[in-house]
Amino acid sequence: MTPRTVTATRYVTPLREGGSMPAVVEADDDGLYVLKFRGAGQGAKALVAEWVAGEIARALGLPVPEIVFVDLDPGLARTEPDPEIQHLIRASAGLNLALDYLPGAAAFDPVAEQPDAVLASQIVWFDAYVSNVDRTARNTNLLVWHRRLQLIDHGAALYFHHGWDGSAANAGNPFPLIKDHVLLPWADRIDEADAALAAKLTPETIADIVAQLPDTWLQDADAFAAPDAQRAAYADYLVQRLAQRERFVEEAVRARA
């Protein structure tokens, strides 16, 4: 796969409900996108998690808005009166990431909505696989668009990579935080989801997704190796986690019970 790259042409509005203050921007293809800034507090690793987790979800057939790479000119800061936004734009010059903006989408409400049990089980399995800590009732990171759930905001996934040395030694660890997953009450088919989704996610698919990570996102202060070595380590970890998935599947089933 080759991600589309667009150029941001206009900063439209901030989305201040996000911890890293993403924004709606217009791009040179006349589309609107929700931009995640490389210069935000969570840094480039949040963009790595957004891309890898989001594209794994897509490979599994889960609903995710299109993810694009966005070239950001620091000159856009000149038209913004807010100094915080000016700083964020300048700190994020170069390649960033964005999701397709879904006009009219509403936040998922676990009180009002009744999600499909199969889809709920698949999302729970996926979030346990990518160690996504951020799909709780407090912050669902789910939208309802045209009566269909959409998965967004995966920057908090892959939390193993913060301070990581590239080892896959912990790839088989369970994911106890799955007990807080907003969709767990409806996820009564996790074993079925495991059988269906694991068959879709091949080592080649994982390697293809990871191969698209830009070098500039793999050069943080805690980077343990050159970009190619980091990409190889991500792929190895994710392949190993898939092969050792019994523990996180059992944890999810137990949490629901």
From TrEMBL:
Domain HipA-like kinase span(s) in chain numbering: 14-242
Superkingdom of origin organism: Bacteria
Family annotation (InterPro entries): HipA_2
Keyword Transferase: yes
Keyword annotations of the record: Aminotransferase, Transferase
Pfam families registered for this protein in UniProt: HipA_2
GO molecular-function terms, A-Z: transaminase activity
Record keyword Transferase present: yes
Name of this chain's protein: Aminotransferase class I and II
Source organism per UniProt: Luteimonas galliterrae
